[in-house]
Amino acid sequence: MEELLSKFVMESTNKPRLLTKYVDDLLAVVKTEEVENMLKNLNSYNKSIKFTIELEKDGKIPFLDTLVIRKNNKLLIDCISSNTKLYLKWTSRSAWQAVTPLHNITHISPLLVGVLHEIIHHTATPASNASRRHSNKTCWSSLIQRTHQEMRGRDDIGYNFLIGDKQAEICEGCDFNVIGAYAFSYNVRSLSIALIGDWTFILPSRPVFNKWQQLIMYGINMGHIQRNYILLGHRQVKAADCPGTRLYNELKGWPHYDY
Ligand SMILES: [Zn+2]
Known about the structure:
Number of domains: 2
Shape: elongated
Bound molecules: zinc ion
CATH topology of the largest domain: Lysozyme-like
CATH class of the largest domain: Alpha Beta
Order of helices and strands: HEEHEEEEHEEEHEH
């Protein structure tokens, strides 16, 4: 990656004003008309490395767990404060290359504002690969969306969020505002979060649990989840093995768990 970036910088005729990297996330300051070019060049070096792009919105863009703000031609960094946790970086649908939901946009049912239930799933994908992309080109979220749409007849990926792609990355599913699938009568009043992997015999890593807690805190602070939310494993609302026996037993010791 370092080699690729130095080559890119050396060969660029219009060099970015800023280019910084954390693991495989880049933050760049470039002229609007140069954005497409930059993406094309970055993707021309190595067939197995594919960059996607997220543009600033109203002068703001999340980067890692911070919000980068462009103001009077200066960049300000706003960090997550442990009290508010108002910004949480997750991998957007466009970044994991989600396909468009099959439903007509007017058929999207909004999730209740401030849900009471949070339902935990596992994706039953191999745990050994849970912390990595299963290939260089596709991430688990994309494969799961395809399975939900093509094999289970869903409109879209059934989870509101997924955690565990790459390292402990949070991936946007159908987000806080759309009803997920799989929990029947609970769907309208619950948030479905899937921890990527098969947690029948082992537990997800500590960073995955940390991200999950950050997501809940964020959801509470933004008014999407009620403060006194009830935590449930998928098997409590449907006859299923989900979220895996080992993880389910762990949930029983967590605050907010209800049986
Ligand atoms: Zn489930």
